[in-house]
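Hi Y.,

Following your request, here is the sequence exactly as I used it, all 112 residues.
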Amino acid sequence: MINASRTFLRECEFAVFAQNLKTKIRIVLKGDYFLDMYYNKTMGKYAYTLIKENKRIIGWDNAPHHKGLDNFPHHFHTADGQTIPSKLKGNPEADVYIVIEEINKFYAITRS
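Below is the corresponding structure, written out as tokens. Let me know if you'd prefer a different format.
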């Protein structure tokens, strides 16, 4: 996850700095947002969550509670509250590029 967080800092123009919080990495972003990045290699679990004011804005995870979705258990929680299939596969070094792309899209929409 350290490599993925370094990639995020380097590639996302909205990233300010990273904090290692033992169980996750928190990326502080512009505009009072932050991204929590969690990965447990042993259990194969991950979560990426964009947060503002203690509320999830968007997020990805592989908790097995949306069995009817394509690409189960990988799913994406949208800003409007939907849960849809995710492109993530559980590989932080590859998945981080998808997260960066979506964060950049989110900022583009919120700035307009």
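The radius of gyration is 13 Å.

Thanks again,
Q.
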